[in-house]
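Hi, here's the filled form for the chain we discussed.

Project: internal
Contact: R.S.
Residues: 603
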Amino acid sequence: MSTEAGRARAVGVAMFALIVVAIFFDPAFLTPAPVFGVGVDPGGTLWMYDWVKNEVLSGNFPAHTTRMYYPEGVDLMARNGSNVVDAIISIPFQLAFGPQRGMMITAVLIILGNGFSFLPLARYLAPQRPYLHWGVAGWWMSNGYVLQELQGGRPTQAMLWFVPPAVLALVRFRDSRDAILLGIWTGLAALVYWYSAPFLALALAPLGLARLVRDGLEGVKKLAIALLISVMVASPLAAPIVYSLTMGNVPGLAEPVGEAMLYVDAAHRFGNLFERSDDLTTVLAVVLAMGTLRRAWILLGTMIGIWFSLGLRFGTSDMLIDNVPYIWLYEHSSFITRLNFPERIWSVVNCLLACSFLFTFARTRSRWLPILLVLTGLSERRSDRTLPLSPFDASEMPASVIVRTHPGPILTVPVQSVDSVLMQQMYHRQPMVGGMGDHEPRIRTTEYSARIASNPFFAALVANSDDGASPWTRADVDALKQWVRWIWFDSELQMRTNGFDTARTTAMRLEAYLGKPYYSDQYSSVWDLRRPGAEATEEEQEFASAVLGVRSDRERLFPRPTSDQEQVLEDEAAFGAGLSDKEKDDEDEEAAPGGTPSMKEDH
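And the returned structure, exactly as it came back:
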């Protein structure tokens, strides 16, 4: 290796290191149980990682679980898509460092893997510019799409290791070897996230057509080989889903446009697109793609990707435009009806944009442009708060100590979130009555929906409200006792997701019907339905207090990040078990005339 090439490689490695440090340089990663991300997804991801690890180590295929939707359980492969590649990769890191830090280390590998996967494509497209390879790969590694998915606690969607190799195989596409590689990389991309395969097909359609024109019948044969190989690679995990499809067990398929499972207002959908492209480097890349006329496949692929990412409608709140081709696709493909976030096609579009940077910079011969690109990209990621990734401490809550001492199924309140509730199951290991998506009627299991219909008390807890139309009775609570032992009210989560007033009202209502909690602190309260009126022993209280003290100290040192929508009044954050006795009595007097009787009145 020449001195010049060695220096270029050293600078490239330095840029890579700078990006990784910028992404993960946050003191909160030093907490004992760091989990990155904001919103409801990090908890579900962490739960999935832990569940997959336990199933694999037990010699089971991770499909059905009774850890949620107890007692019947649920087929998570059919409902969640069986994309567990990143979870499987995380297993050794979970074993060595625990599920939380194991998830963090997996995110580091995902970032690095994304960058290194682009280098072969960069070398092929710009063979004389090693310095350029590293700079553009650095931008691709840390583009806004990837970091926003990681910041949302979604490493599956951020893992793009097989996208650049698939692009390279089709760009080269010289013989059957390239056809086989195209099939392998596309199949592996699908295993990571199913929609990566159609994303690749759409964005690379212009390049594929060019190869068919160039190669004629031979090109048709090579593409057929690629398709066959990709199906074979994806089939081990696709088979359970296909079986579930035939049994009608996959929710959210073939829904009318107006009833899309997570159908988002058109203006919001349009806004999501520009969350992916409102930074200078991405906009510049789109402009460069439009100017790369000699590489028409980049231009056309980018335009197709932008069109698809608009979803069903686009525009502003004042003017909405139907995306007619997308609506046609939606109405004729049940597979697309499961795609709630079409803007994720930017996972492939950004790869095309990185190629446009390669071609443009290669013509300028400037060595500063790659560095400027990386620094500008990092600056933008800092401004939109995706850098550094913001972890929070997912350590054990005191209530978990209490619950695991007396095993039994748990009903958590609120049930509309998969946040701390799921993460705590890794500590107490008790089955949950609810589960991922139980707030969405189309996702609930049949048995779960039947229980909602038959028990007003359970229905009110699931709905997170009580309008008095269906008064609760002791019979309702007694029926709940037949399959639930614990009711866990997560007051912190209730405040963060539904506001202080709702949390205050829910705490008082539960205590009015169930009596004093078995255990309560500023984070949560738990009731043992099998032992009404019982309270935690002194030993349990001391054990929980020790956990409580450690957790409070950690939160003072490393406060959990919140988005603008999750802000709550901090002076109300420690309301604990609820209000004073006088306030509770006052609230009961106000509620009684409204037709919501207390438990004493029912009895």
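Let me know if anything looks off before we file it.
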